[in-house]
Known about the structure:
The complex is a heterodimer. By secondary structure, chain A is mainly β.
Amino acid sequence: DAKTTQPPSMDCAEGRAANLPCNHSTISGNEYVYWYRQIHSQGPQYIIHGLKNNETNEMASLIITEDRKSSTLILPHATLRDTAVYYCIVRATYNQGGKLIFGQGTELSVKP
Amino acid sequence: DTEVTQTPKHLVMGMTNKKSLKCEQHMGHRAMYWYKQKAKKPPELMFVYSYEKLSINESVPSRFSPECPNSSLLNLHLHALQPEDSALYLCASSQDPSDTQYFGPGTRLTVL
């Protein structure tokens, strides 16, 4: 699976949009981009995933560049409860037998 | 319903003890996973069960012994652990190994 690069930390003001970037320049055509987050001492929470089209659900939007070498997770109106470590993971779902390889993630702090 | 439950929430054990961690899901998922997470590090995969058979063992020491008694239940048997095995142990499940994984809240293990 391709490696990802994320900034180690970011701040965001409450009520503003949080835009979390992820670089995955070696992504292959059959690899999906997954986003999870982990609030302190809890289990990782699935947020969203996509292959090449932009995706939106009730939690967030995922914007994938046309060349698929990078993506951005958007939390449209961040709240204090969105403070967490956000993991961007690239995964070929039909390879590796289900392995999910977490990188270091981005620690997002939402401030009042 | 995307709930994976884990018991106990916390466990303290001595190096000579034998204990078990339990994970349960009732979503009809056929793949289940154990991850280990040390403090301030990302989760790392330990084992994958696919259709109740062990499909991946990430070179985990034999003092950790997984068991999948049925498609809803996953156990992790612990014996002769070391203090460095203290960590958050996370269980996850997915419809099959190629699908999105959903995590439980974890068991916080302390080995004295």
